[in-house]
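Tutorial handout. Part one gives the primary structure; part two gives the three-dimensional structure as tokens.
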Amino acid sequence: MKSKLMVLIAVFALTLSCSSDSEDDGLQMVGGESNLVGTWNLTSVDFTGQSDTELNLAAEIIDNLAEEQCYLVTFVFNADSTASAEDKTNYIEVNAGPTGLDVPCPTQSDTESSTWSLEGNQLTFINADMEEETIEVAIEGNTMVIAGEVIDADNYSGAQAIFTRG
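Part two.
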């Protein structure tokens, strides 16, 4: 179960910096800077309507860590169109104890740098393989949502990764 959980979270996190497309008027350039500029932390994963125990456990772990100010994935979008991503998902440890599961905040992380552009709700990155990838994002105020279909249309339909500007 630990490996499936870690794979799920890793796939969710890594894919978030990668693929999809569409349009949304909520993402507009304001004063030459996008409302995407800033630090975005993964604060929740919503698998509403999913009955998979592992998905629900992953969502609970992400929620609990975020409550402790431990963010498994953080994106920083700079006004000069550079970006960085910090990903702690490869370092999650799930420990079973007499009082339940214990998931300490990982102290290690992987970091990647990239460039970005935003047209409508189409966020384009240069991925680790130096390929251009596009994902669809929805931003309302300090909340950014990425649909689960971006990750896996068959398994994460209706799911959402929720980032909060920090």
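Part three, for discussion. Residues 1-33 have pLDDT under 50 and may be disordered. The first helix runs from residue 2 to 16.
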